[in-house]
Amino acid sequence: MQAQIDTAASNLAGHPAGKPKLVKMAGTLAYRNLFHDRLSLTVTLVGIVFSVVLVAVQCGLYIGSERMIAAMLDQSKGDLWVVPYGTKSFDDPSFLIGHEKYAVLSTPGVGAAEELVVNFSNWRKPKGGTTAVLLVGSDHENGTLKPWNVVGGSVAQLDAPDAVAVDDTYFTDLGIDGLGDTAEVNDARVKVTAVTHGIRSFTTLPYVFTTLDRARNLLAAGENQATYTLVRLTRGADAKAVRKRLEERLQDREVLTQAEFRKRSVDYWLFQTGAGAALIAGAALGMIVGVVIVAQTLYSSTKDHLNEFATLRALGASAGYIHKVILIQALMSALLGYSVGMVLSLLVIWASKDTTLLIVMTPGLAVLLFALTIGMCVIAAISAIFKVTRIDPAGVFSR
Amino acid sequence: MNEAVATTAAPNILLEAEGIVKVFGSGDHEVRPLKGINLKLRAGELTLLMGPSGSGKTTLLSILGCILSPTEGHLIVAGNSTDGLDAEGLANLRRKHVGFVFQGYNLFPTMTASENVMLALDVRAAAVVDPPGHAVGALTAVGLEHRARAFPAKLSGGEKQRVAIARALAGRPSLILADEPTAALDAENGRAVMALLSQVAKDPTRAVLAVTHDHRTIPYADRIIRIEDGYIVSEEQADKTATHTNDSHAPKRKRIVSERPLGGRYRIRRHA
Description:
The complex is a heterodimer of chains A (399) and B (272).
Chain A: H1 2-13, E1 21-22, H2 26-36, H3 38-75, E2 80-84, H4 100-105, E3 110-124, E4 130-138, E5 150-153, E6 163-167, H5 171-174, E7 182-185, E8 188-196, E9 207-211, H6 212-219, E10 228-233, H7 239-249, E11 253-257, H8 258-272, H9 275-304, H10 306-314, H11 319-351, H12 363-389
Parallel strand pairs in A: 4-9, 6-8
Antiparallel strand pairs in A: 2-10, 2-11, 3-4, 3-7, 3-10, 5-8, 6-9, 7-8
Helix pairs in contact in A: 2-11, 3-8, 3-9, 3-11, 3-12, 9-12, 11-12
Chain B: E1 5-6, E2 13-24, E3 31-42, E4 46-50, H1 57-64, E5 72-77, E6 80-81, H2 87-97, E7 98-101, H3 113-123, E8 127-128, H4 131-141, H5 157-169, E9 175-179, H6 187-201, E10 207-212, E11 223-228, E12 231-239, E13 252-257
Parallel strand pairs in B: 4-10, 4-11, 7-9, 9-10
Antiparallel strand pairs in B: 1-6, 2-3, 2-5, 5-6, 11-12, 12-13
Helix pairs in contact in B: 3-4, 3-5, 4-5, 5-6
């Protein structure tokens, strides 16, 4: 009989002298088990897709929020920031005492100083109604913080009387249609001479850019008053020493590095307000829901195929072989769910690109999501593995 | 995982069980399906293990197939003692030396006939030149080459059992253990399956043991062991030198092992 098998196999193979190779069927078995019950597979995939999209959106919102909070800081090129004592974030402004720029410029190691005037203002819409905005006055000629992503008009036109720049994301909130429209800021006329795209604010208050002097006028600030003074050091200057000197000279103000101010701003909005915790909790919830759904369906699938796993065990399959089949099932589910979930996530991100929500997908986040999905499915497979570990192969004789 | 300890056994004896006792539970719930079994399976023989329900057949098959460990006694499979082996060690022995044929076929319903055979090759880590060709070759040997791509649901009971036999042979195990291989089959398919098992057993490197209560299988046996209440009560050896009578598959037999004694011990009488 064995000879018959060998002969028949050789005849069919047509190349009996070939190199023997190991047969690999664990993947085929996993695939067939997975696709055998389409309904169960659909439920599994829905669970994974739901989880991937939820985690992607939550993490994308987290990264987007971080970027929105730090947008102004990331756009500024400075080494140190002089800020009012107790400032929580860039978007939580109050005025410095005054004359800081001169104190800074007279400090050894300082190469340049740039003033920023930032404060909440009242925007009266042309057709009636008001909304709060964050007015940002900066030196758009020599400074580093000026409107970017300009899609209409130009930054240079901010020199024109009453000129301001706004972002097109907030046209509806500001009650305007675009370039050339007029409105009032703190009861003074302003005219939109530049339009940016994608400068969104975490607080949802639109940024309105203007010149330093005009901002002071609109905010009724003194001519030597600023909200922040951005410090650039001379080449080779010792940042710690300069900071110490500035702190000694500028009592009742804080001197922060760019990184410290960024972290303080992000931490305040994401953690002290609970917004970030909510995003992280949402992502964690997505993961938990995903694990539960995948675990449930994988366990159910394993239970449905218990007789087959017992047969495999009776045939001599090691526990590792059976675990491999289940893990391949989990990984296949993960790959499918991740692919569909990522496509949907990208669609959600694309759909939100012109809204006030910034959802970001980065290559790093995509890799992290892939790893999380794999991890989620592997964790979900544990219950199924426990189930098959307890299989009694002797059961095959009674079935 | 414990490695099987190689021992010396007579060359033609592929399985040797000595003093096998199996106890399930303890105290008032103790069940003792096997009370002291000695048997040997020789290469080139089809042995039938017969007995009424509850006699311990299936428990004995599970132990001989290295699925269960005996509570007492020793088992040597293809020269390897099972003493002290854990579940993985037993699985390793099964993988290397034992092929099973089940009453309910136990084919993988999501895989074709040839894939079922290939799966067994994978489990046994068998290296072959052309796995699909080898699987079809195995099916050809059981007369099912034309059903290689059929899923079990599309096969008749007899065909399923033949696929199961092809699967059991994959990877060249030296022992084939069949559990009621004809129980779910009609007379014609039952005969075909037994003829196939008989043919398998002709291989001088392989022994076949079939647990059955189907008397239609008797003519195909080289040896019949009867078990009752946990004891082997008789053993008949076919006389292959004798002339066949009305059934071409039925050699004459001689009774060589005797019955269960009183007092829980048993003695063996040999009859010429």
